[in-house]
Amino acid sequence: xxxxxxxxxxxxxxxxxxxxxxxxxxxxxxxxxxxxxxxxxxxxxxxxxxxxxxxxxxxxxxxxxxxxxxxxxxxxxxxxxxxxxxxxxxxxxxxxxxxxxxxxxxxxxxxxxxxxxxxxxxxxxxxxxxxxxxxxxxxxxxxxxxxxx
Length: 149
Prior knowledge:
Hypothetical upf0131 protein ytfp; alpha+beta; 4 helices
């Protein structure tokens, strides 16, 4: 199996976490997943990040080149194929359209709030990448507010 490109939008944005999970993964660059928004879904205080279609919104992402061994490690971490499935997306990277894989939640999980630890791991990834942390804060707020309705 050859290397593939992975879109990271949640805890896989965190470089320390990725170095631990996937020691041979290489950071290729940053991009944007257009017409999608970031939300958190799952049980209260244990919700996980997900990207969902929404016209006019966008989610900042890091793009990693991963090996088949990295992918196998991520499959275990992401609970593939039960919690997350793999989807292909086309994004712009350095001016070119490239095909990347991303882990996206399966089924219909309720909106919820992430744990403080999980949120802090993603926040660190946002800050290291120079991403707008308001996008992350909005995702938490929208998810938590909807979960309370």
